[in-house]
Each structure stands twice: as structure tokens, then as C-alpha cells.
Here is the input.
Amino acid sequence: MIVRVVSATSLSSDELGCWSEIQRSVPSLASPFFSPAFTSIVSAARDDVQVAILEDAGHAFGFFPFQRGPFGSGQPVGSILSDYHGVLALDDARWDAKELIRGCGLKTWEFHHVVGSQAPFARFARDRFDSLQIELSDGYEAYMQGVQATHGQSISRLRRKTRKLEREHGALRFTYHTDDPAALETLFRWKSDQYLKTGAVDILRQHWVREVLRRSHSTQTDRFAGVLSFVHVDGRPVAAHLGIRSGHVCHSWFQAYDPEFAPYSPGLTLLLRLVEHAPEANITTIDLGGGGYDFKRMLTNRAVALAAGSVELASFAAGAARVRRSARSLVRGTSMAPRLRRLLRGLPRRR
Here is the structure.
């Protein structure tokens, strides 16, 4: 295996075509995060995005987009925004994780959502979990029958809340996608308020994060598109959802709602309307991402295995990364964690 590293902006049309063909051919790479368009969008917002081209006898057989950090450290493209990453190659391609990282000129590559089926990364995983999905291949009605069978009471409660919302505030209107930039800013405002109230670090304070989200929202092509959905009540926006799609797969990315309407669960109402509309939009899979939230367990009917860990070569950078992980793990297990999260909200974030 030969590893040739280039900037994300210098890939030829043939190389981009090969990348797209691999993504179309391998079901485990169907996520929009594996689209060359996503890497292109991130590279337009950051100056550290590169792509390793895996070659054999002068022919490209794989692609590995990554972000290059200081002291030989590497991250997935999109870092904190990426819910899927790994090597884009056919299932029978042969490659070695350490050889790949060495060929990229990296000492470490930390991953948090590698596709579990990518065996060369398996021995470097420290944690394994599932990305929960809504599979609609058999249609909306068949899907709802399955959800009703297992979570009928929860679905009934949600529908009662939706009827109450309309009864008390006016007619509900669902919009599958709006290209209005002001609508995206509304989502940003709600999400930042949510981060503040929950004590989470507001990643939207980082300019590059907002730039990636804005560019994803405005991109509308056959192979990659932003999907900004809204629920309005009597003309007033009450819930918003930004997803990205590639082919038949839509990934649920950022969701928030007007806190005044929280008792009505408008975010869940929006998600169910999106599910109902999905077949009409030629979407057969909605990926809800990781995290065992109750609403995800209620709606999911399929799961994809993911892994978190790091590939490390013997180096100072790898040792420093292990120290950082140990410190984070220690803090998370103490009563200091909530206070430190509040402190971190006011500090600049690492790019």
C-alpha cells in the first residue's frame, strides 16, 4: 500500500469520482459524512484538512480524509461535528491502520465514530456503541406499526401533546426544507440557549462550526444536501431540525425548539413529521446518531456499530494524548465535572 497525502482542494475529478463510486458501492459508507462534499465543506471552513489516497500499483483504491493538528496529532474531518468516519474503500480492500497513520505523517489519530465494520481499527478501540437508525425501506405505515407495537403508549402521549399544542396555539405546519438563512440562525439561537441551560460547551461559538453548518445547509446536490425542517404553529416557528443527506440516507444533526413550547415536545413532533415525509423525499434511512436517549430508543428499529479510540505510534504526542484522556476520565468521575463544564463554556475551544 502506498499512501499519498494531498490537500482536500487538490483532488482531481477522477479521484473525486472514484471516491463517490466507492461510497455508492459500500452500504456501510452510505452516511453523508462519507461524501466528498462534506470533506470539501469542512476544508472551506478550516485550513488543516487533508486526504490520504491509498494506492496499489499506481491505482487509487481508498481515501482517508483527516484533519492535521499540532505535534503529529490527527482528527477526523469535522472533528466534533463528525458522526461517522473511517477509510473509504471497498470491503475486500487490504490496509493497515498503523501503516496508514504513518503514511499520513501522523503520530496519533483519535476517532470517536469509526464504523465498527472497519476491522483494521478494531484493536485500537476503547469504547463501542451504536448509532440508532430509523429504517423505512418497507414504508412509513409498516414502520409505524412496528413502533406502535413496542412503544404505543409513548406515541399516543406524543400525539395528545401535538393535538393540545394545536388546540391551544393554532394550526401546525411542517416544512421539510427551507433555504432561508434566517431560519438557520433561529436554530442556532435556540441551540446556544440549550447549551447554556444544560451546562454543555457551546460549540456554535466557534466560527468554523457555524461556517460548516451554513455551507451544509446551502448545499443542494443529488449526492449531498442540507435539510432544514421546521414546525410552525399559527405561523410561529416552534421547532427546527438540521440534517444532511446523501442518497437515501438522512442524518439527524442539530435539533432545537423554542423553550416556551417545551411541554408539548415539539422536537419529537417535528421528527415524526420528518419520518412521515421521508418516503416522499426518497429517504429510506434516518440516522439518529449515538446516545441512548429515550426518544431515540422509542423511534429506532435498526442500529449500526461504531467505535471510539485512537491509533497511536510511539511518540511524545501519543503519550500526551494518553495523559489528556486519563485526566478527562478522572474529572468526569468527580463532583467537579459540572463546575468545570460551566468554566469551559467561557474558554476558547481547540480547533
User: Anything to note?
Assistant: The chain is about 40% helix and 30% strand. The radius of gyration is 21 Å. Confidence is low (pLDDT under 50) at residues 341-350.
